[in-house]
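#structure-requests
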Amino acid sequence: MSDLEEAVILLQAAHRDLQALTGMLDREVFADEIFGFHVQQAVEKSLKAWLAALGDAYPYTHDLMSLMQRLEGLGYQVLTEFEPLLEFTLFAVQFRYGFMDTLDEPPDREGAIALVSNLYAATTSQVSLARNK
């Protein structure tokens, strides 16, 4: 599979996570760790799709900081607006199993969805640029 094909597959997976997030605004129905996990997954898949579209062999990691730093190393400084999403790295593993007592306050669901949507849109643009080359 080419890097670009992989980018498209990852982007589609990120979109499914983003769609799920839009239905998770009710804290009574969806626990913070479930919501946070899908934020983390949408961000991770978006960043990996962006890297794949650039032809970069992204690392096997759930660490959002290392993925963002990798993109920044390739010259994409616009990622600073997405720094608030870095806190969701914790949801990749730890919080998925119910260790929520280390959070000071619950995640801002609407704010997170807006940031993930913006990241997804930016990634979609990068994948489209790569496809049109």
